[in-house]
Amino acid sequence: MFLESFRITGLAVLQIFILGAIGYFLVKKNTLGEAGLDALSRLTIEITLPAMIFCQLIKDFSFKLYPNWWVFPLLSVGITLLGLGVGSIFSWFISTGEQRQQFLSLVTFQNSGYLPLALVAALLPQEQLSQIFIYLFLFLLGFNVVIFSFGIYLLSFSKTNKFALGSLFSPPVIATLITLAAIFFGLNRFLPEFIFRPLKMIGDCTLPLAIFVVGGNLAQIRLERINKKAILLMSLAKLVILPAIGLFLILRLRLPQMIGLLILIELAVPSATFLSVFIRQYKKDDLLISQGLFFGHILSIITIPVFLSLYFTLVMLR
Length: 318
Description:
Blueprint: H1 2-28, H2 34-60, H3 71-91, H4 97-108, H5 114-123, H6 126-156, H7 171-184, H8 193-203, H9 206-219, H10 228-253, H11 257-268, H12 274-281, H13 289-317
Helix pairs in contact: 1-5, 1-9, 1-13, 2-6, 2-7, 2-8, 2-9, 3-4, 3-6, 3-10, 4-10, 5-6, 5-9, 6-7, 10-11, 10-13, 11-13
């Protein structure tokens, strides 16, 4: 049973790897330059992902069907705190203060949107996707607020950098809040089909574009002197310890299958590629971020299928 699950999950991860490799080589061959990658990233974050969130929630979400919707933003905070706790323990083995802050960021913040979206789309049948997409969008509502506040503070780590309230309201967060408000007041019933359909077509472009962007971002990483000790500790904490804790808690608490799957994926995926953007934005020396992102994404090709296979095997036996 484990080997069959590993084959299925491995093929799902391989599909994502192929999409990411296309973005990687487009940037490496300079077919897609830095300006083009930035434009593609902005298109995904500001247009296609908000459109996808809007259409999925409008079509499948209601407060009666999901009375506990508020749990998912809080769940994202809980997962962040778990990552922060595990990262804090391992960070004691990192020598300098700024390296420690970057190490802690790599362990705390995961690639919570693009990779989980692509993973569940590759793993689950169509009839289950609507439910877990809604769970994921609600989860991202909390996660985006945390990473664009505490995440920026953790990496910028300077008294001269002032926190901007507007940074909390990224386009995906705004899209989620507006859509939830529209559903709450019943405005979704008045949305004409000729508007919904093109928006859905735009939203359907999100998954391949998002993985192109991840691959392209990895291609821009400059690997110089590798801090082997830090990368080994980061990989152990992020890709092994965290999903192992998550798997134990999911089975112990006997959580519903889709909620358990969401939690495990969020704990198993590598670090958030946004961390490299924050480093450039605040003009910090890239001591660990690029190395952690590159090797974390490579190693996760093995670790993600292992933990997902364990999950599906143990859940089916339960």
